[in-house]
């Protein structure tokens, strides 16, 4: 396996990798070596479990939550060398990449040099056109992405929208959809009364694609009508300073807590103290934060994009058009005047996440891996 991020480095992809390892460690016949990034004080080799070993190539990330382009290139070079060394030694049956770039590129090299088949779990930003801030970069690397996909044995998408976007680029690819999961033993609801004023939580990187600007502007519109919400913005990112300045300009700074990065083990209490989860993204795959919030019993207010559409409907939340400040403002005004609706929506959020345990998701991945094993056995 190849993944440039793994806790404590990185974000959602690393978290999913970690949670699935907790499932894979139960299967001693499945042997996994992961090559990931590390910093200078990290052990170069870690034993995750008896059957899972982690190799860290030292990158020395400046920001543990987000890798720079230079750091991604550094990982690609170092991880490629390590992958070739390990392949010569262990002769793997399969390479599994947790993103198209950079991990999938390394899997592509292994296929080129050793004829090693590979699977790719496609991240949203891997898909050309998904992330506006990578617009210029896509022009350069899109041909590489398409080639890596074409040579893969299987692609895994996290939601129907990603599946459709990939198929639009190449309809001949073999693609499976496997949702992200949720640990309902960590993320669960608690008994509480609604806050006064109501509290919104938005947990996402502070980047333009996540759309926090839309939420800040909607809150400002509501304030003019005498409707007050409090907001916890969880996360760090390139737009943090701009958003703080915007909140100050619109005179809503006192309503918004820029909480910064919160350790994962502390997140349940933040969700449990909130009343509503808002994710105003312009594009989204399958948001881990949305799943966590729903598991904690929060009604969700989300945009009509990506995997959010598959998790949220009028039974457990509200959907508004991406970038539409007025529409989000209207939704939040409706909630303010109809707070009783939140109880049933909370119950339905919990019900939806109960079908997405990591154990169930892990079985779906294992089924794919076992199919690969059966095909190899038939050939021999």
CATH class of the largest domain: Alpha Beta
How many discrete structural domains? 2
Strand order of the largest sheet: 10-9-8-11-12-13
What CATH calls the topology of the largest domain is Rossmann fold
Overall residue-averaged pLDDT value: 94
Helical residues, percent: 40-55%
Account of the 3D structure:
This protein is of the alpha/beta class. The protein folds into 2 domains: 12-181 and 357-379, Glycogen Phosphorylase B (Rossmann fold, 3-Layer(aba) Sandwich); 199-353, 3-Layer(aba) Sandwich (Rossmann fold). The protein is built from 13 helices and 13 strands. The strands form 3 sheets. It has a 6-stranded parallel β-sheet with strand order 10-9-8-11-12-13, sandwiched between helices. A 4-stranded parallel β-sheet has the order 4-5-6-7. The longest helix has 22 residues, at 69-90. The protein is globular, with a radius of gyration of 21 Å. It starts with 11 loop residues before the first helix and ends with a helix. The model has no long low-confidence stretch (mean pLDDT 94).
SSE arrangement:
Layout: H1 12-24, E1 32-38, E2 45-49, E3 52-58, H2 69-90, E4 95-97, H3 100-114, E5 118-121, H4 135-151, E6 154-157, H5 160-169, E7 175-177, E8 199-203, H6 212-224, E9 230-234, H7 240-249, E10 256-260, H8 267-273, E11 276-279, H9 288-295, E12 300-303, H10 308-311, E13 317-320, H11 325-337, H12 341-353, H13 358-379
Parallel strand pairs: 1-3, 4-5, 5-6, 6-7, 8-9, 8-11, 9-10, 11-12, 12-13
Antiparallel strand pairs: 2-3
Characteristics:
6-stranded parallel sheet, single chain, globular, 380 residues, alpha/beta, 4-stranded parallel sheet, 16% strand, Rossmann fold, 44% helix
């Amino acid at each position: 396996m190849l993944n440039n991020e793994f806790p404590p480095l990185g974000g959602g992809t690393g978290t999913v990798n970690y949670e699935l390892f907790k499932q894979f460690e139960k299967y001693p016949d499945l042997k996994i070596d992961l090559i990931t990034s590390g910093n200078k004080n990290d052990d170069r080799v870690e034993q995750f479990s008896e059957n899972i070993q982690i190799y860290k190539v030292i990158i020395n990330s400046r920001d543990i939550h987000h890798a720079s382009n230079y750091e991604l290139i550094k990982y690609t070079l170092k991880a490629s060398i390590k992958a070739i060394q390990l392949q010569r030694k262990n002769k793997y049956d399969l390479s599994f990449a947790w993103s198209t770039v950079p991990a999938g590129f390394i899997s592509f090299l292994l296929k080129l040099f050793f004829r090693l088949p590979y699977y790719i779990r496609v991240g949203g930003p891997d898909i050309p056109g998904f992330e506006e801030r990578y617009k210029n970069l896509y022009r350069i690397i899109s041909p590489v992405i398409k080639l890596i996909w074409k040579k893969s044995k299987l692609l895994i998408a996290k939601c129907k929208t990603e599946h459709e976007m990939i198929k639009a680029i190449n309809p001949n690819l073999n693609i499976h959809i496997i949702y992200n999961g949720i640990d309902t033993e960590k993320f669960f609801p608690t008994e509480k009364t609604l806050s006064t004023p109501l509290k919104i939580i938005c947990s996402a990187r502070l980047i333009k694609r996540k759309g926090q600007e839309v939420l800040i502007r909607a809150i400002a519109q509501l304030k003019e009508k005498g409707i007050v919400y409090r907001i916890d913005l969880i996360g760090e990112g390139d737009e943090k300073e701009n958003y703080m300045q915007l909140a100050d300009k619109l005179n809503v700074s006192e309503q918004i807590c820029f909480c910064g990065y919160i350790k994962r083990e502390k997140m349940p209490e933040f969700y449990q103290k909130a009343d509503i989860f808002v994710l105003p993204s312009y594009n989204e795959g399958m948001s881990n934060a949305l799943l966590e919030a729903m598991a904690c019993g929060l009604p969700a207010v989300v945009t009509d994009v990506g995997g959010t559409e598959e998790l949220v409907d009028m039974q457990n939340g509200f959907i508004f058009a991406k970038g539409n400040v007025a529409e989000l403002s209207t939704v939040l005004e409706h909630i303010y005047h109809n707070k009783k609706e939140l109880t049933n929506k909370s119950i339905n959020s919990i019900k939806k996440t109960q079908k997405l345990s990591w154990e169930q998701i892990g079985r779906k991945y294992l089924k794919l891996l076992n199919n690969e094993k059966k095909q190899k056995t038939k050939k021999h």
